UniProtKB/TrEMBL annotation:
The keyword S-adenosyl-L-methionine does not apply. The gene is CDH11. InterPro entries: Cadherin (IPR039808), Cadherin-like_dom (IPR002126), Cadherin-like_sf (IPR015919), Cadherin_CS (IPR020894). Residues 1-23 form the signal peptide. The chain crosses the membrane at residues 622-643, 717-740. One of its GO terms (molecular function) is cadherin binding. PROSITE patterns: CADHERIN_1 (PS00232), CADHERIN_2 (PS50268). It comes from Pygocentrus nattereri (Red-bellied piranha). Keywords: Calcium, Membrane, Repeat, Signal, Transmembrane, Transmembrane helix. This is Cadherin domain-containing protein.
Length: 756
């Protein structure tokens, strides 16, 4: 690469030297200055106006072409870019050349006497491709412009100094496996910073350095294509390809760059599922329940994604009714589960034929099929210590009620299904027969009653029987036993409801006052009904009759008129009810009929007995008693007031009175010393300090009180007692009136009041 670069620099330098020589020669020959395009020439334009001469216009003094300088020059001396010369320059050194513009004074310098321009630094076209400068000739002593300024351009001439670069690498691409030859994979593009308009520095050619013989690349477009048919992803999935881009049209001496391309083969469904074994062996214990897993198997498919999905089905086999197959979506395994219980003693092995298929097929590769595989699954049944098995899932027995204890109810039977066939022991768990109505024989499973049963108390008995094998692991099993108590006609019928019948006094004969019905605790047979009749002792009564409705009811009717509750308030009508069962049962039930007072519309007013059957308002006797009490009370009050007015003395003894004013007399002879010993004279003198007296045994004392104090005291007590008694009598009469009268009107008096 550097040999080519040195060759190019050498050629460019040689061309620059020749060009410079030609430029100098052109400046000496005015006949060539306007005809050599690639050399800068200087013309002077003058217009002289002389009197007597013809005026004419000469050519311009400055005509500039482009200057060229080669890039990346690394020689020891500055590079001569060109030379400026004006036709006013006579070579005496009075002309001064000035250079300004881009890079003037730094990159480009000018000899102000000769006009030679040199490049003092190495130029890079990729940094700046051209420079615009301005040249001017001035007088050296006055710096007056001798010519107008003029611009010219210095272009940097390109050399192949930049290799191609892949700006977007590394690249990643994919292509389907089994693709046809020439299938496009990806396009890669390189960039060259050199001038594409100059030579072949930027003309790129692509080639593949790594990845043959699987892939190829188009030289000018950079498109990578498949080069081999039937590339299999399952054999190799990823390929590392290296692409080269070379400038100079790919010729020797050109620069190059490379890019890495990772190509991945994507999957297509080109492989069928495959079982690793032709026969799979599994086992299941006979005590497993439906739904439990038996085993797994898997058909491998080397494809990926949905192309590698596998479905499983059972095609045939004697185990199709006992086993089912499903798929684990995560592991893609076939899961065989128990569908129905299996029995080691009945059948010890089963066979299934399982098929694996791809649910998604690629039509391009159907001819490569078939995309399925089959295998055989053999399942052996293992023996397990199973609990005893009853001959029936449940038992139902019947026993008559009232049967004596020890009556046979039925027999349950269980057996050990294992090969050992151990004996069985039976038991009734007490929690299912808390009252212990039944007992069971441990050896043969015979169930008997322990006492008589009553259907009306409990019609069904639901118990459990446990069967346990003797020996082994003592496995047990339970079965439900339902015992129905058969009915026996042992209950007499009776009234459905016990209600009192209310009947009006003015009821008309033939009126139905009650429809009675009956119930029986026993079961009624088909077409069995009750029979109603009056008890023999009232069969010929003149008050009521009974009509049997030939069903479960009977009508009670009145056969006379003129009932009076004052004569008889309540009637008892005994009715005999027969259930017509086997054996027949009958009972006598009494219907209570109460006579009531009713209005003309038949509305009941009162059903009380005579002492409390009163008309509205108070009776004459009650009114007289109340008025008498009031009169007596008023008379006593008037008498008491009159007596008070007649008395002048106050009713009480004032504190100022002396008790000594009272005269005490007694008809007894003086006792001498005994009298003085019997009474303390000091008491009479000072009654406040009296401490008592000692009476004589034979003294008869009578006291005559002069003051009315004691008389009025006893009088007040008597008057108070009389007033309280009258108030009590009046209150009782009013209370009886308030309580009894309303309940008489609505006929709902309490029973105690009615019967009092």
């Amino acid at each position: 690469m550097w040999e080519g670069l040195r060759l190019q620099v050498l050629l460019l330098c040689l061309g620059a030297v020749l060009w410079s020589s030609a430029a100098v020669a052109g400046s000496r020959g005015p006949q060539d200055r306007g005809h050599r395009h690639h050399h800068p020439s200087v013309y002077r334009s003058r217009e002289r106006r002389k009197e007597g001469q013809v005026l004419h216009r000469s050519k311009r003094g400055w005509v500039w072409n482009q200057f060229f300088v080669i890039e990346e020059y690394t020689g020891p001396d500055p590079v001569l870019v060109g030379r400026l010369h004006s036709d006013v320059d006579t070579g005496d050194g009075n002309i001064k050349y000035i250079l300004s513009g881009e890079g003037a004074g730094t990159i480009f310098v000018i000899d102000d006497r000769t006009g030679n321009i040199h490049a003092t630094k190495t130029l890079d076209r990729e940094e700046q491709a051209e420079y615009t400068l301005t040249a001017q000739a001035v007088a050296r002593d006055t710096n007056k412009p001798l010519e107008p300024p003029s611009e010219f351009i210095v272009k940097v001439q390109d050399i192949n100094d930049n290799p191609p670069v892949f700006l977007h690498g590394p690249y990643y691409a994919s292509v389907a496996e089994m693709s046809n030859v020439g299938t496009s994979v990806i396009q890669v593009t390189a960039s060259d910073a050199d001038d594409p308009t100059y030579g072949n520095s930027a003309k790129l050619v692509y080639s593949i350095l790594q990845g043959q013989p699987y892939f190829s690349v188009e030289p000018h477009s950079g498109i990578i294509r498949t080069a081999l048919p039937n590339m299999d992803r399952e054999a190799k999935q990823e390929y590392d390809v290296v692409i080269q881009a070379k400038d100079m049209g790919g010729h020797m001496g050109g620069l190059s760059g490379t890019a890495q391309v990772k190509i991945t083969l994507t999957d297509v469904n080109d492989n069928p599922p495959k079982f690793s074994q032709g026969v799979y062996a599994m086992s299941v214990s006979e005590d497993k329940v439906p739904g439990e897993e038996v085993g797994r198997l898997k058909a491998k498919d080397t494809d990926q994604g949905e192309n590698g999905l596998v479905d499983y089905t059972v095609l045939e086999g004697d185990g199709m009714n006992y086993f089912e197959i499903s798929k684990d979506s995560e592991t893609q395994e076939a899961v065989i589960k128990l569908k129905k219980p299996v029995d080691f003693e009945t059948k010890r092995s089963y066979t299934l034929k399982v098929e694996a298929t791809n649910p998604y097929l690629d039509t391009r590769f159907i001819s490569w099929g078939p995309y399925k595989d089959t295998t055989i699954v053999k399942i052996s049944v293992e023996d397990a210590d199973e609990p005893p098995s009853f001959m029936a899932t449940s038992y139902t027995f019947e026993v008559e009620e009232n049967a004596p204890g020890g009556t046979l109810v039925g027999r349950v039977h269980a057996r050990d299904t294992d090969i050992a066939n151990n004996p069985i022991r039976y038991l009734i768990p007490r929690y299912t027969d808390l009252e212990e109505f039944f007992t069971i024989s441990p050896e043969d499973g015979t169930i008997k009653t322990t006492r008589s049963l009553d259907r009306e108390t409990q019609a069904w008995h639901n118990i459990s029987v446990s069967a346990t094998e003797i020996g082994g692991h003592h496995q047990d099993a339970k079965v439900r036993v339902n015992i129905k108590v058969k009915d026996v006609n042992d209950n007499a019928p009776e009234f459905a409801t016990q209600e009192e019948v209310l009947m009006c006094e003015n009821v008309t004969p033939g009126t139905i006052i009650k429809t009675v019905s009956a119930v029986d605790k026993d079961e009624m047979a088909h077409r069995q009904h009750f029979h109603f009749s009056l008890a023999p002792r009232v069969a010929n009564n003149l008050n009521f009759s009974l009509k049997d409705n030939r069903g479960d009811t009977a009508n009670v009717m009145v056969i006379r008129r003129g009932f009076s509750r004052m004569t008889q308030g309540v009637y008892e009508l005994p009715i005999e009810i027969n259930d017509n069962g086997v054996p027949p049962m009958s009972s006598t039930n009494t219907l209570m009929i109460r006579v009531c007072s009713c209005d003309s519309k038949g509305t009941i007013l009162s059903c009380n007995v005579e002492p409390f059957v009163l008309p509205a308002g108070l009776s004459t006797g009650a009114l007289i008693a109340i008025l008498a009490c009031i009169v007596i009370l008023l008379a006593i009050v008037v008498l008491f007031v009159a007596l008070r007015r007649q008395k002048k003395e106050p009713l009480i003894v004032l504190e100022e009175e002396d008790i000594r004013e009272n005269i005490i007399t007694y008809d007894d002879e003086g006792g001498g010393e005994e009298d003085t010993e019997a009474f303390d004279i000091a008491t009479l003198q000072n009654p406040d300090g009296a401490n008592g007296f000692l009476p004589r045994s034979n003294l008869r004392l009578s006291v005559h009180v002069k003051s009315p104090l004691f008389f009025f005291y006893y009088e007040d007590i008597i008057i108070t007692i009389i007033i309280i008694f009258n108030l009590f009598i009046s209150s009782f009469s009013l209370m009886a009136y308030i309580i009894i009268l309303p309940c008489e009107k609505i006929a709902i008096c309490p029973v105690a009041v009615r019967n009092s």
